[in-house]
Queue: 4 jobs
Job 1
Amino acid sequence: MSNNAYIYDAVRTPRSKGKKEGALHEVKPIELGAGLFRELQKRHDLDTTYVDDVMMGCNAAVGEQGADVAKTIALHAGWSDSIPGVQMDRYCASGLDAVNSAAQNVMSGWNELIVAGGVESMSRIPMGTAGGAFLFDPEFVMNHTSVPQGVAADKVATMGGWTREDVDAYALASQKRAANAQTNGYFDKSVVPVVDRNGITILDRDDAIKADTNMEKLASLNPSFVQMGSMGMDDHLLQKYPHIVEINHVHTPGNSSGIVDGAGAVLVGSEKAGKDLGLTPRGRILAGAVTATDPSLIFLGPSSAAERCLQIAGLKQNDVDLWEINEAFASAVLRYIEDLNLNHDVVNVNGGAIALGHPLGATGAMLISTMLDELERRGQKRAMISLCAAGGIGISTLIERI
Amino acid sequence: MSVFDYQKDKDGIVTITMDMTGPVNAVNDEFGVAMSETLDKLESEQGLTGVIFASAKKTFFAGGDLKVILATEPGSEVELFESVEEIKSFLRRIEKLPVPVVAAINGAALGGGFELCLACNRRIAWNDLSVEIGLPEVQLGLMPGAGGIVRLTNLLGLQNALPYMLEGKKVRGPKAESAGFVHETVAELDELLPRSKAWILENQNNTQATVQPWDQKGHKIPGGNIMRPSVAQVAVAAPHMLKKNTRGLMPAPERILETAVESVTIGFDAAMKIESRKFAGLATSPQAKNMISTFFFQLNEINAGNSRPEGYEITEVKKVGVVGAGMMGQGIAYVAAKAGIEVVLKDVSLEAAEKGKSYSEKLLDKAVSRGRSTVEKKEKLLSLIHATDKDEDLAGCDLVVEAVFEDMGLKHKITQDCEPRLAEGGVWASNTSSLPITQLAEVSAKPENFIGLHFFSPVDKMPLVEIICGQHTSDETLAKAFDFVIKIKKTPIVVSDKAGFFTGRAFTAQINEAGQMITEGIDPIRIDNLGKAIGMPVGPLTSNDEVSLNLLVKIRNTHLETGLATPEDDKWPAASALRETLVNDFNRGGRYHGDGGYFDYDGNKKVLWPKLKEMYFDETANSSIDNRDIKDRLMFSSVIETLLCLEEGVLRTVADGNVGSVFGVGAPPWTGGYLQFINTYGLQRFVDRCGELADRYGDRFKVPSIVSQKLASGETFQ
């Protein structure tokens, strides 16, 4: 039997608007990551020579965020030269993929202690900077009816019969839950303030939440993907779905994930690592899975990955207490809830990316900390964490509190 | 002596005058030999100061040899690749000559012709409407293969070059310079060579003049390369727009777009290789075969008079009468006047006739405001149309086109009233889409001079006229009608007088099959969208709403009443019943009749009439049929009907069936028409598929015996 993969800690930066005016725009991606590494080292008085590897998800791994950002973060944090480091890209699944890979490494016995996480400075390296055949290679785009996520998200809403009001109502709930969680300090355990070289705080809490929003304000926002759709993308996509008359463009900046900067890091290790370093495990990774479906059915993947996790762990749906599905778009969540027949009461209990923002390659790792904190606060046992990603990819990780 | 005449003048300028065997200069074996020899000579020429490529023909250079391309089969990609690479190497050698090279463009330079020009340092054209320049390959399912895409993209930038390549848009002399196709134009043809020489002499010390833009150090593509966000944006948006239009059925524009994007992404020489590879794959595609054979060879045959009886002098209609100034009549009056023919436009009241004439005025005002015509031309054209309510004004017409409602009694009355006014030997034509010509001609004093001319709406836009010969129509009358159709710049097809003629039958077959599927419980939206998916301009239900359900009900009733058809003849009884239910019980006569048709209409928006699904939708039936079967049922129903028309002699030639189906019925251009479709689908495969469909959906899908006959004799539909 394989080893257990324990979660010894999970931390994240606060999230802030991923534009020039965002609080974290002045912070380099390697600094976002290194801040978390330094915190982990400090909290656990970590001998970093013991760390076998660091794995960091990053979606736009180019420029100052490219060329193996994991290795540069480790060095920048002043960690041991002996840590190799790898950067991972599986679109929005990257951050959680790093955690799953770290768990696999530990479970196999090849490694004892790994830091897995993700970083994405969307203000400094804007979405799409990395290019890619998915949207930029005409041959690929035409062969695979490849459209941007937002257009596909609207098509998923259309197929699900979810109206603008449905997705806005979901968004409102996300904002209220996130505001409530922040007010009551539910995020405090994981959020590590971002500081400057003098130790002066730059940002110490998520600042994108819109606590005062309401249905009226949400309804006043213009749909984001009408223009793209009208430039041929709707017709192109619907060639695959002849029973649909037209795409109902319901997603707006109010019910889609926010563009933000941020990073997350999870300390994953074996039982031996805990004993050697005197660490107490907070949780255990029971299973991880990544699946893929038709790329234009983008939101089918997460539920199938979640089901696969249950299968691997030999558990049933009601063995899971909390469910976290990344709020890339409201319809992604509604689809997940419908596919798995869940109750909204146990899904995204502290809101999600619609309120807090979605730093693409980092989000998966950040959600580990959110869920672990919440399981501890509630005294509950298990949580499923899922994200959708481009290419019809879905990823899930099942964790258990100790 | 070479077909490339080589003359060196006292200034050291060599003029190559291309005068190939046949009517035009074209890329073929002869070209290969002539160009190769010419280049060898130029490269070793002493005291050379410049080169001019000129043409001894009326056109400059016509492009590739379509016969050769049409004959290539899948598997011959290597040869195709090597042959375009060879042509490319010729053009590259022209570019690399150490002296300035001029293309002296005296006439059309299309496809390969323009590609030759693009390899010259200077393009000087005669500023005349006859000088057409462009890369129209896409219209025949092909793409430029001799560097046209790579060079034009480098010359104009991605965004500006794309429309010329994706749509095959041509530019005429007066606009050639502003489009960036040529550097300069000359007003008179005889200035062309002197100006070309002068330019060479002006640039003797200008080393830049001998180097193509893309070969110059630090060459920047206008608008930028793919790294420029605005260019990347074009590459991101264009594929979707393209597939919206082509529905993924046309590989040529896709390959063109890919090559153009590569041209702004990678180096010139590598992009040229990619262009050759994509060309080679495209040339053997079924779509290219279909489009070349129908839109080039067969269309040329038709316009050259293949269906016109031999032995009759070409006639010219001087004065045409148009009776009935409604939608059809006013359009016919316009196209006739546009061709310079005097028109008498007659209706029951002067007011109605004038209203019909004002249609021409509206079209011309629009053309003037868009710079496509002038006020003088407009006035001249309008002066040719004489609106009247008097029969006697038709006196002296050598052709009368009767274009009143589809009512046998009314048409008979008008024939009797007006026919005597015709000039001696004049032709009487009835514009009808459904009434038998032989019966219409029963009241005619000269049924041999009586013929059907089926125009399509809107007449000024639709290119086809279906000529219907009644039982007594003479060959001479047919020849005269044919000449008239050619004169008004329409494409004539000739059919025999049987219910529905050809276009009506091929058209309704598909919408009947769609109706049949509704009654089986299949989702109407799905049916309509899958009609678009096979390449129809609109879905079959939308199409039926447009032409009106009323009309089809009425035509069917007329056919039943007049004994042209019996209820047993109806291959789609459920579809007919469905239409009758809609029209009679629910007042749903079509988009412009009653409360709507299959759809409810609100301006440009349409939603499915909810009751349609309530009455017929069946989840089990809908989920048990796959998209492929729905698509094939729509396509095959029209194809089989076309085959029956050929078998029954309604159609006289395959070319008429193909061209008529695309121009008059809306058959998808990628098929090259409903008969050509079978050639590239494969006759045996077609027979097998018909068998499957017949087993599943009924005997109407049984393959017509003409296919088996062709198959047995190893022929295709040509």
Job 2
Amino acid sequence: MSPGTLEKNGTLEKSGSLDKTATLDKTGTMDKFDLKTLISVTADTIAAHAEELTRLDQAIGDGDHGLNMKRGFEAVRAEADMFATKPLPDALKAIGTKLVMTVGGASGPLFGTLFMALGKEISAEPDRANLMSAFGKAIEAVAARGKSQVGQKTMLDVLQPVHDALLQGKTGSEIADVADSAADATVPMKALRGRASFLGDRSIGHMDAGARSTALLVRAVAETIEGQA
Amino acid sequence: MSNVGIVIVSHSPLVAEGTADMVRQMVGDEVPLAWCGGNGHGGLGTNVEAIMGAIDKAWSEAGVAILVDLGGAETNSEMAVEMIGEPRAHKIIVCNAPIVEGAVMAATEASGGASLREVVATAHELSPS
């Protein structure tokens, strides 16, 4: 993907996270962006919050989310150089596969599917429309993998508002805030998927761990890209 | 072997192995059988790579029925089937059934030479709805 192919600013999402060049500045041009940096900041934020994610998962799940996510993102970090040599679609698919193989739990297939589907849908030199469409399709793929939908106290409850915010052309920091608010909004929800659903009403009052990790990833990516713009 | 194969996927290797023991007691070596359990790092969980390996081990041209315990086992098994891809993927079915009872009943059905569809249907009869 080459700089300057996007029309508007605010392209700051997961596909952007793995996009070497999808950085938009205020004038609407994209700067070169380093995939390795994005891999590094996402692995950093997961590592820094691993214990928090585990605590959230212990409250209403099986308590392995922090450790699992950390293992997966460190595995991606370990091969960052290799991913960075690939064209964008191939890099995303390879990162997704790596997450599937290393994260474990239900999160491995779910986060892995997000990246694999992005890689499948995105073009090598995506414009804004392609990025938006690919992210939308990736969210659909995650919903299908988890047999879930928005409102069931899952990562989808962050992904969908982030997608909406992107469509609205919000800035990176605004999108990061949208993601945090969306994760907070899972607290009063009743879990309808995953282990937390076994708790029924007792799942109410706790944040979904997958929603929190998704928001962490979104913030890391959005702020990094904004900082580069 | 022409009989349908059975794969058991539990978060716990002890549950998976114990279930496989119960299946063996019922059908001996008449059914290709493999199990996996654990996250691959010594903890509870399921692992796509291990599931793909178990499917290979229990592979039969008649197909493979997978019995799982909790959600992650199902999601990871579905992921494994997708990654194996065609031409084998359409012959691998993740059953909606209790893992122990489902494995024993599915294997018993398979040992009589039943089709994949019949084996899976037998397991599904154990689940309400």
Job 3
Amino acid sequence: MHRLYVLPTLIINAVIIAIPALLTVALAFFEWDGISTPVFVGLDNFRALWDDSVFWTALTNNIIWTLIFLTVPIAMGLLAATMMLVARRGSKFFQVIYFLPVIIATAITGRVWQAMIYSPVTGVTGLLQRMGIDISNPLTETSSALYGIAVVDLWHWWGFLCVIFFAALRQVPAEQIEASRIEGATFFQTIRYVLLPGIMPTITLMMIMTVIWSFLVFDFVYILTQGGPAYSSEVLSTFAYRSAFYDLAVGKAAAISVVISLFGLAATIFYIRAQATEFEK
Amino acid sequence: MIRLKLLAATALIAGTAQMAAAQEKVSWWYEQATPDQQKLIQQHIVEPFAKANPDYNLVIDYRGNELDKQLRVAMLSGNGPDVVYTAGPSYVAPMAQSGQLMPLDDYAAKYKWQDRILPVFLKMGEYNGKIYALPKTYETLGLFYNKTLFAQKNWQPPKTLDELETLADAMLKDGITPFAAGNANWRGANEWFVTLALNSVAGPENLNKALRGEMPWTSEPFVKAIDRLNSWWQKGYFGKNYFSLTSSEDTADAMATGRAGMMPTGTWQFQNVATYGKKAGSDAGFVGFPSASGDPVFPLGIGSTFSIAAKAKNPDGAAAAINFVFSPEVYGTMNSAWQGEWNIPLKDISNVKMASEVTPLFTETMKSLSAAVNDGKYGYSTWTFLPPATDSYLINGIEEVWLNKITTADFLAKIDESFQKEMKAGKTPAVPAR
């Protein structure tokens, strides 16, 4: 009888997640413009992706994005969190400051950066240009557009990791930290041998989620550059979006979505395995 | 007590519904409109329509930027509005193809649309020999220029492409950006320049052939057109900040203040040109974009279209509403207040009354455009005549050409491949014969 309790969530899950997901997977094997009857084309959509240079640019960009977000914000978050742990005074204040960008709506963050920092008319870039410094809006250069977007997302994101890590660090038993201090460990030794091992499960979880989120990234890219200029900041999700709603190639978009989910699936399997080994210990 | 209140409320709702049912509801989903613009539609369309047609209750639902996507999903499930409002003929073809729209030929006969609407536009709404859509507004591209600056420097508005290039080079020397242009808010701005190059370098005759599939897009005239456009980009005509400036306000400001000399853009910019010109105290002029021969070509574009859903609950009401929009009164009142967006393709606009504050430049331009269309001397805009995937590639691909990622030949080869594929699938919009 108690199994009935899962029924409501199961139904919701089936209706809004499982069925659309399965339909998307199925659509990846069809050619469909979103209006007329879908035509079965087998693996054609995937074959077309394989030959499409934009697909490879987008995939590479997603991988670069993942690497950036696996390192920079996690390092920044860990550093700031340990510092707040050591210097307790003012830590509440800094937590609020660091966390503030997280609660600002993505669209607003994007527009603020676009207009106040990057814009050559109204932003800091423009100010520097008028002072005679030869600097251009990073979002408009093919070589820097992706990094320009990553900076905005980092600014908005790392505070979240910082607060999560800080919460985890406070769970590390105080006796362990005290003991290391009595033993004469330096600040970095304390981090390396006491704090980091203490919060390893949290870090692993955050890293796996980072991989999944990195392959889903859409909002900042779409708001700031829409994947341009010349596809240089295209990621898989913006590519799928354009295929579906501008090119009216829903089948191709579904195929791209399947590729995105494969990466998420790999990360999830890795996570479940890591969890399992932890339990065995 | 609560039950009593509930009962009373239900009775009240039922009563109002009964009253509303006396009038048949006509639903129309509209795109993005500011509260002021919504007020204009209410004042100049909904209210006078209600007065003229007491049987129908026209309800406009503002769906914002997502209109197209919502429409597509709603039409699939058969729950769409009566009046189907799309972003252009290339959206109509797939809908007509899959039987989601109603042929309008009977209504065209009933309301005598053939006599009242410019024939080219009726032709453009055809699919398989039947009318499925009426264009709401038509537009063209041309060259705005800063008249005050031109007088100061003793420059003449260019007529030929060579004159344009000489003038632009002179501007570059003086530290003035030749073209006020940007795509930060609207990536589609890229295709305005491609459209201009295709029409003025390759010419409308060649475009007509290519659009009917009689000539590949890789042919020499198109190569020349894209090469020439690219040379303008490489020389810096579009300025340093193209990707950072908005195609509407920033560019109008740049031209009005004289930081840029000219602005190749569409008739939808008239309002901004007037606003920013007033602010900067400069005058603006408008000419057709220069061409090889010196005769300007006006590329024709359609902003949006009206159709009736095949599953419309009230097709007669929808036809009456569409018909109402095609009147000199609506043309005059809407165009006076909201220039460029309501340039309804009426055959005869001599009776139209425009408000006195509308710039004469706009009225003149629209008259010469209507004459050019009537004489068959018009060009083709890519957003109206290319099928969706080809157009989407054109917008993004041209950036690759400008930024030296691919060559003109690669670009055109991809355009051609995509176009032939979509043509085979029946997705290309109708192209009237020349």
Job 4
Amino acid sequence: MLSFILRRLLIIIPMALLVVTVTWGLIRIAPGNFYSSEKKLPAAVEANIQKKYGLDKPWYQQYGIMMLNILKLDFGDSLKYQGQSVNEIIRRHLPYSATVGILAYLLALAIGLTAGIIAALKQNSAFDYGSMALAMLGLSLPNFVLGPILVLAFALGLYILPPARWGGISSLILPVITLAAIYMAYIARLTRAGMLEVMRSDYIRTARAKGLDEKTVLLKHGLRGGIIPVVSFTGPALASLLAGTVVVEKVFAIPGLGNIFIQAVLNRDEPLILGIVAFLSILIMIFNLAVDISYGFLDPRIRYE
Amino acid sequence: MAENVETVKGTSLWKDAWRRLLKNKLAVFGLIVMTIMVVAVIIGPVIIRWTTGFTADYIPSEGDLIKSFPPSAQHPMGTDEAGRDMLARVLQGGRISLMVGVISTIVSLIVGVSYGAIAGYMGGKIDNFMMRLVDIIYAIPYILIVIVLLSVFGGPNTPTFIQTMASTFGGGQALSQIFLLFFALGLVSWLTMARVVRGQILSLKNQEFVMAARATGVSTPNIIFRHLVPNALGPVIVYATLTIPSVMLTEAFLSFLGLGVQAPYASWGSLAADGIKNIAIYPWQLIFPGVTMALTLFSLNFLGDGLRDALDPQTRKF
């Protein structure tokens, strides 16, 4: 087990470097660069800028220098936000996305799991159909439609919640609900499917046969196997939530990382793009590893060599 | 009694699946809504006689101070900022949005199925390399890939076949950029499809019919595409129906950010994005395109779910 974890942790580094390399290649393939969208500069000034950022060197030297710096976890300064390091920018904007993201996931887990379990236990009941139709609606309602409609109802209609901006718990409610909706729907569906499958398995029959009461069978034996699909979904979902969901940040004017990333892509701000992509890919891989480890605890039949 | 006289008829996998699908009320609901949506979008201009969204009976004059009116008998969905009939705009937008769903999904199908089938059949080092590549592309935010594709192949660099396609639909440069977007979206949505197909091929490739084909000297591409892929079609169709709503959402998201469909063309996403700006004063500008899109995605998701239950008896509801 320990060697499995170590091996997986070690492979994260080359994988992240590969992801950064491919991303760098993509940025370089596209015609133009950060400066091509700005005002045309005198040749001498442009040459100076090229020199300052090392753009006058051949591409393989630029790549080598960049990779060496990245290995030291130094992504350099953003091109757009002069004098601010990429690490600084990520550190400053991540907390906003993380707060909204974690709260949204907790809300999604709480409601999604409960609804999924009840729907599975009362299969084909009105609750089952109702909650699953609601979940489908959650999957189908784009969050840039849901968000503004919530704003319309609760902020502009009822005047009980602020429509946007960051400050206080009340300003978190609408963005968290908007962001949570789709995850809630996924979790409810996954839980229901997982529970239905597990409750029909042999070991549940054994548990019942040995006379355990239904509550123990369900919570101690059923749930552990039943939520495995939810756990696999959690890894990538949490990473994408932490990174911020652009739409919710835009609709509610939250200064999170998602918007910074989109702006960086549009501005061709190479260091910032690479920094955020590297950060995200490492985050995803760590979450996926955590998910793989937790499988072992949830289902004793899964073993890692 | 009638059942007794009926002769025993053989039934194919597809007939069986169709029967199961028709039993699923929600899937039938989805099928009906989608049919209506497609028909409405196609015959829309015949009924409303719009000219870029202005209906024939109302073209605002420069002097009108307010051009956006709430829903009325004349304009069931109201009018937008420029005084264009929202119903006409939503139908126009629906053409683009539904086309995204179809074209991007076909592109992702072609790439994903070929890639997954080749990786799965080749196995070993090739498979390992191909799937690690998929992992890496997964880790790169798709929005970056889409933007790079759009800027590499945009403007004068647009592939000829896309330009030909745009002119077939009666559009010029602007429309060919939209078609380029469709292809770009397809080129970022094939990853999961490749994984699904690879998994299927892995479980199929050691079966006797493949061995028989190989023994009779069928070429490798023929084994992959004529013997293996047709046998993996069930999951592929299911996954494709679920890809349609997801690419439509992605397109809407890009249009929301101002990166997708550009004026004078519209999609549900770009209409909703325009509507959000005026939400406090003209809420119908957001609500109608938003709800139409949600209803479509809702139906497609139900249809996809129904198809999965119908085509894959193992995961069918008990």
